[in-house]
Amino acid sequence: LHGFDWLRHLAATRTVEAEQLARAHVDGWIGRCGHRRHGVAWQPGLTGRRLLSWLAYASLIMTSDNEVRYDRVMRSISDQLSYLSRSWNSEPVAEERAHALIALATGHLCYRGGELAARRASGWLVAELGRQLHADGGHVTRNPSVTLALLLDLLVLKQCYAERALEMPAAIADLMQ
Predict the structure, then answer these.
(1) C-alpha torsion sign, points 128, 118, 101, 174
(2) What is the DSSP string of 102-171?
(3) What is the spatial distance between Cα 43 and Cα 155, in angstroms, rounded to a whole number?
(4) DSSP string of 153-170?
(5) Which long-range contacts (CB under 8 A, 24 or more apart) does 139-145 make?
(6) Which pTM does this prediction carry?
(7) How far is the CA of 18 from the CAs of 8, 14, 58, 116, in angstroms?
């Protein structure tokens, strides 16, 4: 639940009730867990998945007509990015480290002036993927769902680079060929 992957289901309904529910759960999470920075909710891989979900469904969980909520969510995103930049390498599960780095690079690309931090995170990601992917493109776990999940997150990162009119690092782009 802390990963907010389920936001896609609320977004798919396209109802006012779903939007209200999504906003209430995000607000509730920030109130209960947003300042603790420990426990299961703050595992780096899970933090990365939450960030990717919040960024992907930002239009669902934030509105420009509620400046207080917008500022609160943006502060939380910034806090999570800061936390991830310090903690991603403490994640014990390999694929979760990769997801955390993808979220870190993606998140920084969503901020004006975040290009340098995104490049740094992308460099860490290249090294991490080099350790995790075999020459045939398969993940070290040999679990095809892990490979697919990483590819889907990398597509989001690729889109963020394109939206910013920046070139994705070749080492990452080559993995997606």
Answers:
(1) negative
(2) HHHHHHHHTSTT-HHHHHHHHHHHHHHHHHHB-TTS-BTT--HHHHHHHHHHHHHHHHHHHHTT-PPPHH
(3) 23
(4) HHHHHHHHHHHTT-PPPH
(5) 139/94, 139/95, 140/94, 141/94, 141/95
(6) 0.89
(7) 10, 7, 14, 36
165 phi-psi bin (left φ>0, alpha ψ -120 to 50, beta other) = left
Per-residue pLDDT reduced to its tens digit, 14-51: 898 998 999 999 999 999 988 877 788 999 999 999 99
Virtual CA dihedral for 78, 120, 154, 134, nearest 10 degrees?
A: -140
Dihedral through CA 98, CA 50, CA 122, CA 143, nearest 10?
20
Nearest 10 degrees: Cα torsion 30, 31, 36, 39: -70
Angle between helices 94-109 and 67-87 (to 10 degrees): 130
Residues 6+ apart with CB under 8 A from 35: none
d(CA 21, CA 96): 27
Check pLDDT > 80 for residue 80: yes
